[in-house]
Every structure is written in structure tokens, then in C-alpha cells.
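Review box. Two proteins, two foldings.
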Amino acid sequence: MKNISPIISEAADAAIAAYHNAKNNVGLSKLRETHRMGKDGTPTKLLDELVESAVIEKVDSFDINILSEEEGFIDKGSSVTLIIDPVDGTGNATTGIPFSAFTAALVKDSTFIEGYTYWFEGDKAWWAKRGESTSYKTSCSTQLTTSTISMIRPKGNGEKFLKVAKACHKTRILGSSAIEGALVAEGSLDAALDPGSNTHRIVDLAAAKVFLEAAGGVLVDLNGRPFEYTTDITQRWSGVCAASEALAEKILELLSNS
């Protein structure tokens, strides 16, 4: 990661330090208390607040825009925006399940140019920059029947979730879309998706978009909406991260009649 942007490097350092400080010094029951409502319309837990505030304070001197799950859009009048989810997988982190991440992406003039995701408990990072070579390569899977697919937990009647689970080889529910997108890019998962609940926000998948484009995968929306830069933190998608365009098309076809 020798070419990682200083702003992402410093944001990550701040997030990692704040996360471990909170986990080491504040009880889990306190960290999962709702601190306020985030600008995305979902509850902000104390852990989210502690990590986000540390990151925003650290990167303030760079004088670029920030788009965060909790604080929303902080407009500095810049052509560059740092998109962050301070803790992706808060539900895991605040109950002791070791699967949560800091994730960030840089956008310039509406183009996603750099992505970074750090798995807090696993001490593992993924990073990619648009136009630069990467060691990541998807599995290139094209068939549902041989694919391992991670999904957001079923919501509503769970019909679409069950349809994918029955059609694929193996199913996982991991609880961190940011890490799951990275795992698709590196070839550990064949796909990761939201089977129709419109849960994903731009902060969940911005870094994954960069990873997947570099690694030969694709990011599409179940309902055909383009995944584009927006400062509207309330906008939602049912994202499909897939190892190949062919696999993504099979997933979309499978669920199109549900």
C-alpha cells in the first residue's frame, strides 16, 4: 500500500486507534447504546460516534468534503470527497463478534478513485486505486450452483434470500458488507448481496466498487439502479457484488421474478 493516499492512511489510523480504545475501555453494553439518529436515518451507537468523531477530527486539515454514515455530508467546497463508514458491522462489534471494519473511499469529480477497508479484529486491510494494478482477482465464477454467496440477513418473508440460498452452493451471513465486498474482490467469496431489502448505502459499498473494478468483478443493483456517487446518505441500493458479469446476471435473472 505504498501509494495509499495520506488522507485515507490518516483516517484509517484514527479509526483503528479509536476503535481499539473504545473496545478496551468501554463496556460492550455501553458501546451499543443509541447515541443519536444518524443522518442516514438509522441509530448511531456510541461506538460509531467515537470512531467517526476521531476520523473527522483527524482529516479536517485536508480541507476536503466528507460523507459519513452518521454525520452525513460535510461540504468544504472541494472536488474531492472522502466517504467513510466508521464501523461497518456495528452489531457484530458491540456484541463481541469479531467481524467489523472501517471502510473509506475517495471520490474526485464523481469518480471513485481509491478504496480502503480495514478489518478491525482480523488486522487485515484491502486497498486499491483506480488505474493501478492490484494483486486481487475474483474467483471468476459464472455459475450459481458452484458459488459461495454471502447475503444480508433475510427481511420480510425472506423469499428472495431463500431463492438464492437454494440455488447456490453455499450461503453465508457475515454482517459486514464492506468486508464481504472485499472478499469477493480477492476471490474468497463468489458474490455478496442484499437480496432485495434496499439496505445498502453508498458508505457500505464505495470501497468495494473500487476493489471489484480492479479485480475483474462487478457491482450492480438488484433493481437496475446505477451505483453512482451521491451526497444523499439516505439513498439505498440492493447491491450485488459478483465475481463476474455472468454470475451477476444469473443472480438478477433468478430474482427478477420474485
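Next protein.
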Amino acid sequence: MMSTENVQEFTLSTGLVIAGAYAQKVRRTLFAQLKDLTKNDKEMAKEAARATAELNRLLYYLIVDELKSDKGDAVRIRVKYKVHPEKKTIEWDYSSLVVEFFKRVSDEEVSKLLEKVMNEKLKEVQEAFGRRPGGEEAPTIETEEKHLERVETEVVGPATAIEMIVDLYEIGETTMGTRLLKIEGPGGESLGVVELNEREGKVLGEVLLVDGGEGYRAVISLPGSIEKLLEEKTKVIEEIKKAKYEKIGKEEAQHLLREKMSML
């Protein structure tokens, strides 16, 4: 006789999280998604804890042992899984596992590189953009300006959407404790979303913008707390506007947007 078991399918997505906190985020996310199944079922709750430990151990080997994660690094994890309520089992679909890793460059390394650029290029830049005696401008200025204009026109990014950003509207808090904000244009139209996640005195933000039928994604980082930034939204908007974006497919962008909305 054919089984009529009700197999349920889910997708676990941590959102952007500090690498050192991935295990807790995986656990919280799984239990939040399965709260109706685990609330009054001790066996299902034990299975959720077991499945969490299994996935987290595998992720540990990747994030800690192989990628050598450090303080300030960030990670985003997505994986599909099936729940068999009658058998009280959870089965990860490891073929769908996606791990995105963001390496933070230390302040010391940035300072060293800044010092190197200052020592090697400052005099050259000052001479190129300075003024000659009598007010005559150095002849390289026009060339540099034209070069910068050409480079700016070659940059791939959501230029139109960025120019239209005027405000952020808080949609709400997700099941993972992050805050989701709508990025609004002049007429209140939605240009995308930003998900804010507070960790260790910093706020990481995952930005999703849709522009010209294309999707764009970026990661921003600001000091302080989410509550403080919600009072000073212009700081978040400034970071969104100057972020470096990667182009993603329209379908992927729409999928990520739906995924974030489903976590409210």
C-alpha cells in the first residue's frame, strides 16, 4: 500500500550574520520555522536539535577549519530540508546548501595600505591637481577628470534606483531578530529592502535593489545599534548609496525578497 505521509518542505535562510554566531542563528531559525511541530512534541524537538547539530558541525568544518573565519567576518547560509512528521525526522538537502562568506579586512591592514598609498601617491596627486605659480592649473587635471568620468560611466550598478532613494520604512522584525526596512523612492514606491542585523556593537545590512529589471545586492556595515540608526536613517541611506553592488538575476532578487518577507 502506498504511503500517504505528509512530507513538508522548507528553506532555512540565516540572512547575513557574524560568522562567529552562525550556529546559534541556524538553531534559532530552524526552531522558529518548526515551532508548530516542536512546541508540544518532545520527540520532534529532539530531532530539531539533532538536525541542527548535524548541519552546524558540517558548517564548522567549512567556516572555521577551511575558511579560517575571524572576528568581523560575515556569512549567509541557505539550505532546503524536508520534515517527516510521522517519522519525526528532518532531512537536509545538502545538494541545495549555499554558503556565502564575507571576509573583513582588518583596520590594521587598511591603515597599512593607506599609509602605503599616502607615501607613494600623495605627492603625485597633489602635483597633478595643484596650481602652478600665477594660478595656472596643472595640465593633467582635465585628463584626470575625463578619466574619472569615463570610469564612472562604466560602473555596473543600480544607478537609477540609488538616485531615487529618499527614505526607509520599517516593515518589521523577522523571526531571526533582524529588522527589515523598505527602501522608498520619492512617491513612496518600493525600490528594494535592507535587512539589518546587530552584532558585537556593529550593524550589518544586506541590501537588495531592483533597477531596470535587474537585481542588485550589497553588504553595508555601520557602527552602533539598530535603534540608533533607525533614528538617523540618513546614515543608512548614505551607506546604501555608496555601497559596492553585485548584479544578480531578477528571479534571484525576487526570490530573496519573498524569502525575507516570509520571515516576518
